[in-house]
Amino acid sequence: MDLIVENENGLYVPEADVYLDPWRKVKKAFISHIHADHCRYGNLQYICPRPSLPILKKRMGPVSVHGLDYGEKTTVRGIEFSFHPAGHIPGSAQIRVAGQGRVWVYSGDYKTRSDGLSQPFEPVKCDTFITECTFGLPVYKWPKQAEVYRSILEWWNENKQNGRAVVLQAYSLGKAQRLIHGLREGPGPIFCHSAVQQMNTAVRKAGFDLPKTRPLTKKLGKEDLKGALIIISPTAFTGHWTKVLKTYETASASGWMLIREAKRRRSVDRGFVVSDHADWEGLIEAVKATGAERIICTHGYQQIFSRWLSENGWRAEELTTEYGESAGD
Ligand SMILES: [Zn+2]
Ligand SMILES: [Zn+2]
Predict the structure, then answer these.
(1) pLDDT of 19-37, one tens digit each?
(2) pLDDT of residue 327
(3) What's this model's pTM, rounded to 2 decimal places?
(4) How far is the CA of 62 from the centre of ligand 1 (A)?
(5) Mean pLDDT across the stretch 201-228?
């Protein structure tokens, strides 16, 4: 029997009667990371990586939650569970499930290249690997992080010299903190929208070294924000801010920015390719590093990626899950 199966509630481990990142309410849920599509409301008990604890508590309020260190094992009905760094966002993990001579790893979301803030991805040996494939197309090849950050800083500098603020749209958990950390030597102050500020506080509490950021409050006017970098989620950048700022430039930091069409759709002046997921090469590298013979592809371009794997000697399958592309790109 398979160690992990899918049912109407999510990814299920029948022998232990627990779920991994369930999409419906269950009794016991192991959580890979605190993006909304992976960590949902209403479970009776949550188990998450210890560095995710302050973030989970901030997002979910008072729930029953237990934290496990990376690599620490816990056994449920004879099945062993442990978390291993996924490099996706601060505190994120892959989940290793082992029992009766079988080892499965569910990747959650991951990226293989270090972002300088999140715990770097660690490959885990297994015989079956359930991998996400958000960017599972050969066209997705990420530029070097240092180069992208250099062009963001140049853009910020130019606008500052013209007395303008720049608005960088990024998800409130993960992408925002990674950018704050990477752009800390920038030419001006960093202001963050309240949703981002809340996550900054939680991420600092989890032990991450995040420079000081200022809250973007409604009291602020155009003069206060001159030369600043404003980090805000795409949905929070409302008419209020366009009126206050008057002249400014906007950008989006996302893997989708590799495709010109995506930039147009988000109607931003600039698109910077910064992704919290593995690119095509990263997915292949991760699959190889697990040593797994059987690969279950989900969450993205599973058809294309699983076909490529099948053609190249793996036993690959597709699995449709209910994880979205909306949180963390
Ligand atoms: Zn996801
Ligand atoms: Zn995610």
Answers:
(1) 999 999 999 999 999 999 9
(2) 54
(3) 0.96
(4) 23
(5) 95
**Domain 5-139+276-318 - what CATH class?**
alpha beta
Are the beta carbons of 300 and 328 closer than 8 angstroms? no
What integer is the mean pLDDT of 219-247? Answer: 93
Distances (CA, A) of 236 to 167, 194, 286: 11, 9, 34
In angstroms, what is the span from residue 125 Cα to ligand 1's centroid? 22
Please, which contacts does 35-42 make with residues 24 or more away whose CB atoms are closer than 8 Å?
Answer: 35/89, 35/109, 35/173, 35/174, 35/327, 35/328, 36/326, 36/327, 37/322, 37/323, 37/324, 37/326, 37/327, 38/108, 38/109, 38/323, 38/327
Of the bound ligands, which one is closest to the alpha carbon of residue 174? Answer: 2
CA of 279 to the centre of ligand 2 (A): 14
Mean pLDDT of the region 198-209: 96
Q: Which ligand minimizes its atom distance to the CA of 132? A: 1
Using the mean position of ligand 1's atoms as its centre, give its distance from the Cα of residue 211 in Å. Answer: 26
Residues surrounding ion ligand 1 at CB below 5 Å: 109, 323
220 CA to centre of ligand 1 in angstroms: 34
Percentage of the chain surpassing pLDDT 70? 99
Residue 209 is predicted with a pLDDT of: 93
Ranges for all domains in the chain classified under CATH 3.40.50.10890 = 145-272
Please state at what angle helix 194-205 crosses helix 53-60, rounded to 10 degrees: 140
Ligand nearest the Cα atom of residue 111: 2
Q: Is the pLDDT of residue 328 over 80?
A: no
CATH for 145-272, options being 3.40.50.10890, 3.90.550.10, 3.40.50.300, 3.20.20.140: 3.40.50.10890
User: What's the CA-to-centroid distance between 165 and ligand 1, angstroms?
Assistant: 31
Nearest ligand for residue 89 CA: 2
